[in-house]
Amino acid sequence: MFKRLQQKWGISGAQFWVIFVAFGLTGITTAFITRYITGWIGLTKETFWLWKVLLRITMLVFGYQVVLLSYGALLGQWAFFWKYEKLLLQKLGMMPSEKTESSFKTVNMAIFASGAGSNAANIIRYFKNRPDTKIGLIVCNKPEAGVLGIADKNGVPTLLIEKDRFAKGDAYLPELQKTGIDFVVLAGFLWKVPAALIAGYPNKIINIHPALLPKYGGKGMYGSKVHEAVIAAGEKESGITIHFVNEHYDEGATIFQASCSIDHADTPETLAAKIHDLEYAHFPKQIDELLAKHVGK
Ligand code: GRF
User: Fold this and answer.
1) Quick one: pLDDT at residue 8?
2) What is the pLDDT of residue 103?
3) Which of 56, 149, 230, 255 is deepest in the core (most CB within 10 A)?
4) Which 3-state string (H, E, C) describes the chain?
5) Domain boundaries, given as residue ranges, for the chain
6) Cα(96) to centroid of ligand 1, in Å?
C-alpha cells in the first residue's frame, strides 16, 4: 500500500517517511491546539455541543492545513504540501483550478484507415478547433482509398505504408515518432498490428470493430463479411466494440460497446448503416474520454 502511494505521489522512499511524520505531527499538534483553544475560550462540558463541533470543524478545515504546511516547510517538504493544499482548495471550490503543464499538452493522434474513411472524417470534424487534440497523420495502405481524399480536404498529412515493412520491420515507428504521434486510432484498418508498433505505443492504440466482440471478430471478419455472418446467424442484435489493440485480431481489452437491434427486414447493407450511425455517435466521444483519462492531456 505504501509503495503504491509513493508511486502515485511520485516521491522517493525517504521523502515518503518524512511526509508520513509530518502528517503524524500535524494530527498531534492540531489536537493539542484544539484543546488549548477550548480552555482558552472557556468551553466546558456544559457548553452547547454545537459550539464545540464548530470549533473542531474550523480547526480541521483551517488549523490542520496551516499546521501541516508549517511542518511540511520545516521538514523541507514545502513543495509537496503546497501542491497538496492547492489541490484540496481547488476541490473545495476555494481556489480556481490552474492549468497544469499536462493540461496544455496537445495529443497528436494518427488515424490508420484504408477504406472510405467516414469514421476518420467524423473524428477530424469532432476534434476540429480543439487546442488539446490534433489529428496529425492519416496512415493508409491503399493508394486508392477514399480516406486519402478526406485527409487532403482537411489538410492532414498522410503516410502510405507498405505491407512487408509494416509487418516485419519497425512498423514505421520512426515516421510516427518523428511526426510526434502519441496516440493511434484504427478506423477501418485491416492489417494485423505488429509487436513493434504495440511496444512503441503501449495501451495507446485502439480499434473499432463493427460487431459485439468477442463474437464475429478475428481474421477475415471485416466490412460486410461481419454483417453477413451476424444476419446469417439470426442474431437479434449487433453493435460496435471499441477496444485496445494487442497482437491478436480483435482481442484487446474492451473499452466500450453499444448495440442496435436487428429486425427480419435487415440486410447486411441496412445493418452496416445502423452500425455506422453508432460509430459516428460514439467513437469520437470515447476517444475524447480515453485521452482525458489516460493520455494526460
Ligand atoms: C467501420 O465500420 C469500422 O467499424 C470498421 O471499418 C469500417 C470503416 O468504415 N473497422 P469507414 O471507412 O470509416 O467508413
Assistant:
1) 58
2) 43
3) 230
4) CHHHHHHHHCCCHHHHHHHHHHHHHHHHHHHHHHHHHHHHCCCCCCCCHHHHHHHHHHHHHHHHHHHHHHHHHHCCCHHHHHHHHHHHHHHCCCCCCCCCHHHHCCEEEEEECCCCCHHHHHHHHHHCCCCCEEEEEEEECCCCCHHHHHHHHCCCCEEECCHHHHHHCCCCHHHHHHCCCCEEEECCCCCCCCHHHHHHCCCCEEEEECCCCCCCCCCCCCHHHHHHHHHHCCCCEEEEEEEECCCCCCCCCEEEEEEEECCCCCCHHHHHHHHHHHHHHHHHHHHHHHHHHHHCC
5) 2-91, 107-294
6) 42
User: Could you give the percent of the chain with pLDDT greater than 70?
Assistant: 92
pLDDT of the residue at 9: 65
Q: 129 phi and psi, to 5 degrees?
A: 65, 20
CATH 3.20.20.70 fits 107-294, yes or no: no
Q: What is the pLDDT of residues 198-229, one digit of tens each?
A: 999 999 999 999 999 999 999 899 999 999 99
Output the nine-digit C-alpha cell for 157. Answer: 498529412
Helix axes 78-91, 64-74, angle to 10 degrees: 160
Name the one residue in this structure whose C-alpha cell is 510526434: 180
Q: Are 186 and 207 in contact (CB under 8 A)?
A: yes
pLDDT for residue 272 = 97
**How many angstroms separate the alpha carbon of residue 210 from the centre of ligand 1?**
7
Residue 188 beta carbon below 6 angstroms from any ligand 1 atom:
yes
- Catalytic residue chosen out of the listed positions 209, 264, 276, 282: 209
